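Take a minute with the sequence and fold tokens given here and flag any structure token that looks odd. Thanks in advance.
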Amino acid sequence: MMKKPFKLVAGLLLLSSVPPAAVLAEAPDLENEKKLEMLSTSAAELPPLDLEEGYTDFTDAMGTRYAHAVWFMVTNGFAQGKTPTYFGVHEPITRVDAAVILENYAPLFDVSSKESPFTDVPERAQKAVNTLYWYGIVNGKSHTRFDSYSNITRGEAAIMLYIAHETDLQDVELDEAAAFSDVSARYRHSVKVLTAAGIIKGKSDGRFGTNELLTRGQLALILERISEFNAQLGEKDSADYPIEDQGISISTDKASYDLSVDRYFMIILENKADYAFSHHPKFTMQKKVDGEWHEVPYLGELVYNTGFGWVGPNEKYEEPQGLDRMSFRAPLKSGDYRIVQTLFSSEAEIIVKIAAQFEIVE
């Protein structure tokens, strides 16, 4: 399946300092871990995590501020642990593992058939490195050497992540007063933007830790923050829509969906009227926050697979929709949601807007 590419700046030296994140260099299924490795932040820089949120089987992450970020990475297939019970949150990340995770995390078109010039990339990571190199996200230490097994620093990761998400970060307001004593001109803009966006932070002594190695746990925290930044809720909708209007109703197949087991939800339109309804091919997903409904951002537009739909008299229409990353810009989190649908009947000359509410739990 093709992925949507980021707006990238060609020729940037990125992966020349990008390491792996949640994958063992020798693990055969590192394919899934391709996404845990991008930025950097130290554990001490981030607020404690609610220990009841983000349960994980990894003993080195459970009960720590890494718990939810690790859960986020593993559940979405962006990374795996070193073992079934050990994630390696405090271990540094290599460039090749970072490339694998980044390519898995970033929605890029598959251009892996285009080869990079590097001769030191293991077979398991060639697809990832080829793709990132083609997009200008990574370069090598030399024309033919990627330096796959060197560890990535916080500064290098900041550059890589900024480049990959430049379009999403272009409207971030910069704080000119924010500066770190150890950030040179090469890293300055990337670090400044990512810091202003709240994605990364510096050390308590006024340093960013530019040359310090990025760990797998820090990368997990950063990628989750990027995902949350990209998934900011949209416009507010103060309307209170009914479940049924003019004989047409909307519902979901369940009142509550558990993201650990549910991969999709079913939208059900039922028409008890004597005339047909057409439904718009696009519906709106909304989440309730502080008592107000806000649109949930999509990767593109969530649409009915059958296009413009028709529900005849006394007929029922069902349509499954995914709860995964392929539909939404970031994984859905626990909360109250509703699907809003607009329908009209040319025969009755009416337009109705109805909504079905449901809950999502993690």
